[in-house]
């Protein structure tokens, strides 16, 4: 029962995050760019934007709660129990597992061999993703279609370009 309550809380927080990030977008219609008619609509946020919002919320206010006999949420840290749990706080019942290490029982793949970004400081950076184990760098050649031109009628003619790039993977 307690876990269902916590899961319901998570669903509400996720739904609220989506609702907060919905944006109004408008487009003008008219002769030569005039705004004779204006059409507006609500636009859903990108999934990454919602995820980042929830992660920021988690980083700011996650509270570990104890499973209490009366099914009430209360702070696990006894020195903070007098502080009420606010409705905008995220709570968690169980500690998160270690996602750095493979755990087949939990379906966690770990981060060994994952490609990471050496120059970026976000969640896919080598510093964060590799969990302090470091990373390997190898030089690879990438091929892509380039210098494409439309040939009348009816096909596209492209060249193949290649360039070398460093690929970083977690140890």
UniProtKB/TrEMBL annotation:
Q: Name one Pfam family in it.
A: wnt
GO MF term set: cytokine activity; frizzled binding
The listed locations are: Secreted, Extracellular space, Extracellular matrix
**Is the Secreted keyword given for this protein?**
yes
Chain ranges passing through the membrane: none
Superkingdom of the organism of origin:
Eukaryota
Picking any one GO biological process from the record gives:
cell morphogenesis
Q: Which UniProt keywords apply?
A: Developmental protein, Disulfide bond, Extracellular matrix, Lipoprotein, Secreted, Wnt signaling pathway
Q: Where is this chain primarily localised?
A: secreted
Q: Which GO terms describe its cellular component?
A: extracellular space
As for what it does, the entry says:
Ligand for members of the frizzled family of seven transmembrane receptors.
Q: According to its UniProt record, which protein family does this protein belong to?
A: Belongs to the Wnt family.
The name on file for this protein is Protein Wnt
Origin species, per record, is Soboliphyme baturini
């Amino acid at each position: 029962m307690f876990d269902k309550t916590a899961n319901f809380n998570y669903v509400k927080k996720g739904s609220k995050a989506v609702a907060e990030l919905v944006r109004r977008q408008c487009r003008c219609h008219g002769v030569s760019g005039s705004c004779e008619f204006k059409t507006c609509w609500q636009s859903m946020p990108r999934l990454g934007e919602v995820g980042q919002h929830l992660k920021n919320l988690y980083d700011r206010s996650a509270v570990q709660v104890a499973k209490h006999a009366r099914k009430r949420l209360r702070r696990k840290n006894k020195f903070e129990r007098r502080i009420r749990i606010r409705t905008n706080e995220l709570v968690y019942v169980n500690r998160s597992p270690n996602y750095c290490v493979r755990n087949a029982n939990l379906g966690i793949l770990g981060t060994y061999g994952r490609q990471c970004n050496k120059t970026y400081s976000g969640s896919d950076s080598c510093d964060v993703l590799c969990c302090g184990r470091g990373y390997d760098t190898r030089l690879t050649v990438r091929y892509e279609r380039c210098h494409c031109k439309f040939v009348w009628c009816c096909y596209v003619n492209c060249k193949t370009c290649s360039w070398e790039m460093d690929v970083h993977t977690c140890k």
